[in-house]
């Protein structure tokens, strides 16, 4: 099934069961479509900072 922008929220994502790390989880995720904005419309969530050992 091909999704369109009308199937997704303003961020170009939605929530449903997906396989993640070998388990089925109800998770928010983005989709790419053949219509504008093609990939994500905006970022949703809180970014995480990682400190790498140098
Ligand atoms: Zn989906």
What does this structure look like?
With about 55 residues, the chain is mainly beta. The protein has one domain. Helices cover about 0% and strands about 30% of the residues. The protein contains no helices and 2 strands. Strands 1-2 form a two-stranded antiparallel sheet. The chain starts with 12 loop residues before the first strand and ends in a 24-residue tail after the last strand. Zinc ion (ZN) binds next to strand 1.
Main features:
about 55 residues; mainly beta; two-stranded antiparallel ribbon; about 0% helix; about 30% strand; binds zinc ion
- What's the number of structural domains? 1
In this structure, how is the largest beta sheet organized? 2 strands, antiparallel
Q: Uncertain regions: pLDDT < 50 for 5+ in a row?
A: none
Strand order of the largest sheet: 1-2
| Mean model confidence by pLDDT | 89
| Helical percentage | under 10%
Specify the structural class. mainly beta
Bound compounds? zinc ion
Order of helices and strands: EE
Number of helices: 0
% residues in beta strands: 25-35%
User: What distance lies between the first and last C-alpha atoms, to the nearest angstrom?
Assistant: 45 Å
* Overall form: extended
Quantity of strands, as a count: 2
Radius of gyration of CA atoms, rounded to a whole number? 14 Å
């Amino acid at each position: 099934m091909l999704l369109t922008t009308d199937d997704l929220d303003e961020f170009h994502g939605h929530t449903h069961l997906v396989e993640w790390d070998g388990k089925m989880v109800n998770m928010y995720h983005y989709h790419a479509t053949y219509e504008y904005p093609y990939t994500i419309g905006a970022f949703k969530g809180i970014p995480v900072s990682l400190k790498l050992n140098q």
